[in-house]
Amino acid sequence: LLGQILDHWFESEPLKATLATDAVIGAMASPHTPGSGYVLLHHVMGELEGRRGAWGYVAGGMGALSQAIAQAATARGAHIFAEKAVCHVLLGRDGEVQGVALQDGTEVRSKLVLSNASPQITFLELIPQEQLPKDFVQRIRQVDTRSPVTKINVAVDRLPSFLAAPNARDGQPLPHHQCSIHLNCEGTQLLHQAFTEAAHGHPSSRPMIELCIPSALDPGLAPPGCHVVSLFTQYTPSVLAGGRSWDEQARNAYADTVFDCIEDYAPGFKASVLGRDILTPPDLERIFGLPGGNIFHGGMSLDQLYFARPAPSYSGYRSPVPGLYLCGSGAHPGGGVMGAAGRNAAQVAIKDFRHL
């Protein structure tokens, strides 16, 4: 249990609660849920520029990271086709991979196919079900994809000024503006209460909020004097109590709750808002292909990690279809901006390719 780990090392409740947020990020779980300690480990393992457990902003926004990977690939001769949706994986007579078919009818032939899509899309939508073992299909269908995350992107005409650390007169970013700011995290019990509400189908009345202002470090992301604020919030159930859907009214009501909370810490925040983009779990699924809106393609619970990710006997990136590999967040070791699953899958695919 995460609570036991934090209690062993720390005394301050606000510090423990702030650290606890990394144990429940993207998880429909409470800091008191067994296995939550691993999610914390997952988020602080590794290093950035020699600093263990460090995180960083990407200059130019997260899309710049994708562009850097794309440029590295094309420099080695790769061809990238954007906005070309894959319709299905092409299979030979013996069930082996022969390439992919695009929605426009184009067929791309290949002896190997690596899928960065979720296990659900890869195996339940792109492959004929009769080509897969029944127990494997059942396992993929049973993966817990519940997500508590609603992402809100905000444009503001000035930096938030927090009661705990008011802005300087010149309005320039202070050190805390350049970090991850955690709100509604004064105690782990608050996080547990927020989770409990969502578990019963109600958006948290006092949601966990992780607030970042990337334009404080990267001014090119916003016009002079203005800023972009990224809000990563929990907990919001995919389906609301009573089977209600996330209509415009429900989405705005939840966002208003989040903004009211921020206003308590930084008076004047609501008046500074120029626009907002609200992405609930169904929105994240529809736009980005994330099953259930889950940023990790499936819960990072102990029953869905290591040898069981995405299914027992298939944690080594190979799939029941010869030549088809899973290289995304649904593969071992799970999600996060670290590239481990992709690198490992590539190593396995290269090894197999030498024997083809």
TrEMBL record:
PANTHER family: PHYTOENE DEHYDROGENASE (PTHR10668), PYRIDINE NUCLEOTIDE-DISULFIDE OXIDOREDUCTASE DOMAIN-CONTAINING PROTEIN 2 (PTHR10668:SF103). The keyword Flavoprotein applies. The gene is Pyroxd2. This is Pyridine nucleotide-disulfide oxidoreductase domain-containing protein 2. It holds the Pfam family Amino_oxidase. Residues 34-177 form the Amine oxidase domain. Its main location: mitochondrion. GO terms for cellular component: mitochondrial matrix. Interacts with COX5B; this interaction may contribute to localize PYROXD2 to the inner face of the inner mitochondrial membrane. The lineage of its organism: Eukaryota, Metazoa, Chordata, Craniata, Vertebrata. The keyword Flavoprotein applies. It is found in: Mitochondrion matrix. Keywords: FAD, Flavoprotein.
